[in-house]
Sequence to fold (423 residues):
Amino acid sequence: MSITFPLQVDGQLDPIQEAPHFKSVAGAGNTPLVPGTQVLDGSATFSPMMVMKQVALENNLQQLAAFCKENGVLLAAHGKTSMAPAILRRAITEGGAWGLSAATPAQVRALRQFGIRNVFLANELVDPAGIRWIGQWQQQHPDHSFLCYVDSLRGVQLLEQNLGTTPVSVLLEMSVSGGRTGCRSQQAALEIARAIQSSPVLNLVGVAGYEGALGAGRNAEGIAQIQQYCEMLVDTARVLAQSQLFSSDTIILSAGGGAWFDVVTHCFKNASLPLPVVPLIRSGAYMAHDNGLYSRIAPFAQPGATHHFMPALEIWGRVLSRPEPGLAFVDFGRRDVPFDQDLPNPLWLRDSNGANPRKAEHLRISEVNDQHAYLILPEGEVLQPGDWVGCGISHPCTAFDKWRYLPMVDENYCVTDTIETAF
Fold:
C-alpha cells in the first residue's frame, strides 16, 4: 500500500528541493525536452502541455513582415504577448521588426536582457525606480533606442526628476473620452508638448494611441470609428508640428494592435503633415495567432486579405473521466488555457500513445474549472481515459503567461526548440 493506516498528523516534512521549471516534461522536470523528442507518444511529457508549432510561427512572422514592407510601415512588435526570447528574437531576425514594444519597466528590462536593441515602452513611464533604471541603461548603451509615452504634465515632471541627464525620446499619447490612457484634447496636448519642449532631457518625436480600447466591431461602423480615431492622432500631430514642437525632423505615428493594423496603416501612410511621417505599428498577438478571437478579427482573416496567419498554439490534455454519455473531462483548465475570449476549440484526438490522429472539430468544450475542461461529445464517440485531446486556443495574450516553458514542435510534434517565458 502507498499509505499507512490509521492516518495521523505528524508535522514531518522532507527537505525542500528545486522546483520543476519545465512542468510538462516527464521525470524531474528540470531540463527541457531535447530536439527530436516526440511529445505525444507518452514517454517524455506530462499532461497537460501547451506547444507552439514552428511552421505557423515562421509563417506569421513572414506574413506581417511582407505587409509592412509593401506598405512602408515599421513594426515594434509587442513583446508582452509571449515574453519569450526564442520567439521575440525571431521577430527581429526573421520578421523584419524594427524593435519590440513593452508595457512596463520590468518588461523593458527583460527585453534588454533578451538582447533587443530597440525598445518602445508603449505606455506612460511614471515609476521612479523604473525611470532611473531606464535612464541608466540608456546612458550606458547610447546606441540602443528607447521610446515611451507621455500624457500629462506630471508625467513630464516625473521623467525630469528621475532621468538625470539622460535624454529620452517620447511620444504624446492621445485618446478619447471613455478610452484608455492618453490626452483627451488638443489643448492639453499642446500644453504637455510645450512642457516637453522646455525640458532639458525630453524630446518629442511623435504621437501615439491605442485604437483597440475603443471596442469597435469589424463592420462599417466600427471601421469608421477606428478611422476617426486615427485621423484624430494625425490632426494632433499636425497641430503640434505647426507649433514647431517636435524635436525630430520626422514624426512617428504609432498605433495598430493585432486587430486594426490594416486600417491604422492605411490612415498613417496617407497622412499629410508638415514633416515626413514614420508609421510604427505595434502588433504582437500575430506571432501566435489563434483559433478563436483573432481568427475572426485579425486583418488577415477578413475577406479579400492577401496575407494569412496560422494558429501556432495548441493545448494538449488527456481524458480524465467519461462519467456519463456525451461528456468527458480533460485535465487542463484555467491554470493552463485562456478563457477570457472564448474557450479552447477541440481540433484533434489521439490514442494514449499518440497514435491514430483524428479530427475533433465536432466536439466542444463548454466550461473550464481550475484543472478540468468539460468536453461535450456525441454519445457514440469512442474516447477513453488517457486519450489525448488537442485544442486550439483563443487570445494568445493570456496563454503564454500560464507557462514557463513550451516546446516548439514541427508538424509531426517533434521538438525543434525550447520556449521559456519571463513573466
Summary: The chain has nine helices and 18 strands. The mean pLDDT is 97. The CA atoms of residues 136 and 400 lie 30 Å apart.
